[in-house]
Amino acid sequence: MNRLRFPPVLAAIAATLLAFAIPGYADSRETLGAGDTLRITVFQNPDLTTETRISEQGTILFPLIGEVTLSGQTPTAAATRIASQLKQGDFLKNPQVSVTVVQVRSRQVSVLGLVARPGRYALDDTSSKLTDILALAGGIVPGGDDTVTVMGSRGGKIQKVKIDVPGMYRSGDLSSNIEVQNGDTIFVPRAPVFYIYGEVLRAGAYRLEPNATVMNALSLGGGLTPRGTERGLKINRRLPDGAMKKLDARLADQIQPDDVIYVPESLF
């Protein structure tokens, strides 16, 4: 095979241009892994352009040099490894190689619970914030809680973080919009509810908003029927040990998840 030769100055210029002009050539903090799809190009050698996927063993097959291990390498390090093997095999004199990540499959997060499209989603440099991944999953559906849970391994320990997504935007503090990492799980639980029955116009289950009171509950229930009264209101509340307790309720009392509010009938 004919060896391509060009002066060292031109080779250096070509390498510099590639580093700035071709995505994936510049150094990256992210490493390659099994399932990632790559596009590999060699400057002035279009016949060597290859689009391939990293195998479960962490390798690819590249023309001339055969199997190359790339798992755990950055795109820049992968390009250097391929170039080195091309040079060592005496196939090219001074190869300039670029590795571009076409599709990321090795770095993924799981999104579960009440989102439009639960599943596994790939991470990349432009969509690693919590809200970015929730958007990819179609967002939180009606009935989903505002507070989502993110679980993942940090420093060898499993961490669990709860984040109030709308609260970040109400306060303007986006510091809780964390960077999710490979292997994380995002879970959107069902929003807490309370129940109201008795002498109200619309008895049933309602979403529990923060700091909601008995008065708010009566309003959501459509108010009292002509026979209803605010006297003798009761709340049936489940205690931490699982037992049920009946409490006297006042209009200003805050309600808790799964409370059952009873509105009695007036005796007069």
Describe the structure.
It is a single chain. This protein is α+β, with helices and mostly antiparallel strands and 268 residues long. It folds into three domains: 96 residues, wza like domain (wza like fold), CATH 3.30.1950.10; 81 residues, Outer membrane lipoprotein wza domain like (Outer membrane lipoprotein wza fold like, Roll); 71 residues, Outer membrane lipoprotein wza domain like (Outer membrane lipoprotein wza fold like, Roll). Helices cover 18% and strands 29% of the residues. The protein has five helices and 15 strands. The strands form four sheets. A five-stranded mixed β-sheet has the order 7-6-10-8-9. Strands 12-11-15-13-14 form a five-stranded mixed β-sheet, covered by helices on one side. A three-stranded antiparallel β-sheet has the order 2-1-5. A hairpin with a 3-residue loop joins strand 3 and strand 4. The N and C termini lie far apart (105 Å). The N terminus is likely disordered.
